Amino acid sequence: MTGPGNEWFDDDAGPLVRAYAMTGGRARHSGREDFAMMANVATVARPAGAHPGIGPEHISIIELCLEPLSVAEVSARLRLPLVVVRVLLGDLVDHGFVTIRRPRLHAKDGVVTEDLLREVLHGLEAL
Predict the structure, then answer these.
(1) What is the rounded (10 degree) CA torsion for 16, 21, 23, 25?
(2) What is the C-alpha to C-alpha distance for residues 4 and 31, in angstroms, rounded to an integer?
(3) Which residue range forms the structural domain that includes residue 73?
(4) How far apart are alpha carbons 86 and 81 in whole angstroms?
(5) What 3-state class would DSSP assign to 13?
(6) Does residue 71 lie in a domain region?
(7) How confident is the model at residue 26 (pLDDT cuts 50, 70, 90)?
(8) Which terminus of the chain is more solvent-facing, meaning fewer CB atoms within 10 Å of its CB: N or C?
(9) Is residue 80 part of a domain?
(10) SS3 label, residue 65
(11) Sheet containing 69-70, strands listed edge to edge, beginning at the edge strand earlier in sequence
(12) Coil, strand, or helix at residue 52?
């Protein structure tokens, strides 16, 4: 999109305004915890009917996480930026629809193991 009046659009940037709208302009959720990419997300409840503050993207996360997935996997599967997914997850945790479990570090005597490195690599590839 080029031409007069279109200087705010960038074909390569993608739908930036949509991501901003999904989070209500928030770059962080209201909680203190910053969800690690490798943390597991699991659905614990589904909203019964319409629920204030829960939009279609929230519902997509709830449905996707009926089987636990990492935060990075949720981001990749929904094709949403990680920062957006973290805000949406914060909303879902606040409403009691999902739980977040931190990954266990597989280290022996403070040494990082091959399994841990493999998990990190898979998380990065999922982005």
Answers:
(1) 90
(2) 42
(3) 16-126
(4) 9
(5) coil
(6) yes
(7) low
(8) N
(9) yes
(10) coil
(11) 69-70, 40-43, 98-101
(12) coil
Let me know if residue 8 belongs to a domain: no
Residues paired with 107 in a beta bridge:
112
Structure tokens of 12? 């390569």
Q: What angle do CA 44, 32, 116 make, to 5 degrees?
A: 70
When divided into structural domains, the chain yields a total of 1
Q: Identify the CA nearest to 100 among candidates 43, 46, 41.
A: 41
What are the two backbone dihedrals, phi and then psi, of residue 86, each rounded to the nearest 5 degrees? -65, -40
Task: Give the gyration radius of the chain's Cα atoms.
Answer: 17
d(CA 50, CA 127) in angstroms, rounded, equals 31
pTM value is 0.66
Token readout for 29 is 């959720």
Give the contacts of 121 (CB within 8 A, at least 6 positions apart).
none
Angle at which helix 71-78 crosses helix 82-95, to 10 degrees, equals: 110
What would the pLDDT profile of 104-125 be if each residue is shown by its tens digit? Answer: 655 556 666 777 777 777 777 7
Q: Where are the alpha helices (DSSP H) in the chain?
A: 16-22, 56-64, 71-78, 82-95, 114-126
CB 97 within 8 A of CB 43: yes
